[in-house]
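Handout, page 2. Input:
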Amino acid sequence: MNGRANTEKLLIVNADDFGFTRDVNEGIVHAHTHGILTAATLMANGGAFDHAVELAKRHPSLDIGCHLVLVGGRSPLPPHKPYPKDLKALLAAIVKRQLAVERELAAQIEKILAAGVKPTHLDTHKHTHLLPPVLETVARLSHRYGIPWVRRPFDYPMSAAGVPLARRLLSRSLEVLRRRFHRALSSRGCRTTDHFAGFQLTGHFDARELVALLEQLPPGSTEFMTHPGFCTGELLSSRTRLKESRRRELDALTAEETREAVKRLGIRLVCYRDL
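Output:
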C-alpha cells in the first residue's frame, strides 16, 4: 500500500491551502522556485482559487493535489452554504445527515479537474479524513477519480524543540487510529507515503527546526506538510490562526542552510508523480 520502501530518503514537501489567499499562493510558488517545496494541495473553495490555478499552470513542476474542505469557508455548490466552523460541528452535521459529504467532496475534485488541473494526491483541511465517515468517502473518491495517493497524517517519531506539549500528546494520541485508517485505504487500493511529518510542527518551526527534522528523516518516502505564505494585508485580514507563521515557514523552506542540509544528508526531493 505504501510508497516504495528502500534505503533511499525520498521527500515530498507539500504546501496546504493553495488557493486560500493570493499572498499565500505567491508564497507557495516562491517556496517551490527558491526552496525545497515540491507539491501543493489546492482548495476548491478558496477565495484565491483562480489565481492558484493560473500559478499552477505557469509552474508545471509544482505537483498539485486536492485539499478537501469540510470545515470553514463555503460549499462550491449552490446555494454555497457555509461549512461547519470546526470538527465538533462537522461531526454533528454528519451524524444528523445535514451535510452530504460525498457530494461536497466530489464537487471540489470536479471543480479542480474542470479548471484543467490533474491532481495527483488528496488530503483534507484540518485532517478531517481521520473521522471514519470522511475517510471512507475520501477512499471511495480516490478510487473513482483515479487519484491514488492519500495523506497519512501520523508523524514519524521525532524530537522537536519548541513544539507545545499538548501538540505532541495529540499527535501521539492519533496513533490509535492508524490501523483502521490504513485498512480503509487498502480496501480501495489507495496509497500513502511510508512516513509523514508536519502535524506537530505546524506554526512552530524555522530553519533550525526544519534542519533538525531533515536530520531525523527515515529511509523510504516521506510527506512533509507545510503552510508557507507571504503575510500581507490579505492574509492578515483572513480568518485563520496561521498568519505570521506562514512567513517563518516560507523563510525556512528557502533558507540556504535548509537546501544545504538536503544535499548533505542525501535526501532526494520528489513529487507524488515520481513515486
